[in-house]
Amino acid sequence: MKSTAHLAVIVGLAAGVILSIEVAAQTANVEQTLLQLERDWEQANVRNDTAALERILAPEFVSTDSDGRLTTRAEGFARRKSGEVKFTAFTQDDYKMQVIGDTAIVTGRSTIKGIRDGKDLSGQERWTDVFVRRNGRWQAVATHSSRIARP
């Protein structure tokens, strides 16, 4: 009887370890997917690639920029098309991710060069992006950026 109980405990522990390994592997896979989306978004900003942005940004996407302006996905595309917003360089780093079910929060830092409304917007920003997974596909639903003060 004791050996049956010990076997049950060992099997239970082994199952827990296997489950933990599977969850860790799934999390790593999700994080790699999100990191690639962030990199694709970065490149789409520099290239003004609307087709890529349409894949990355959900229809209800909203951006809060460092000036506090709210911009929908459609408004953002219109501003890019008109030339009101143009990036000539856009790099990101210092990524951190939190995945909570079908929602993910990604934070990081951008170094940008470009113009917005005829003004230079070059500098660094900290940002927070929110992604949602629907039908197995991740898309950004919101972003918020804050300027990093120059020393």
Structural account:
The chain is α+β, with helices and mostly antiparallel strands and 151 residues long. It has one domain (2-147): Nuclear Transport Factor 2, Chain: A. Helix content is 42%, strand content 44%. It contains three helices and seven strands, in the order H-H-E-E-H-E-E-E-E-E. The protein has helices spanning 2-47, 50-56, 73-82, and strands at residues 57-64, 70-72, 85-100, 103-116, 119-120, 123-134, 137-147. Strands 1, 2, 3, 4, 5, 6 and 7 form a seven-stranded mixed sheet that branches. Strand 6 and strand 7 (137-147) form a beta hairpin. The longest helix is centred in the first third of the chain and has 46 residues, at 2-47. Residues 18-25 have low confidence and may be disordered.
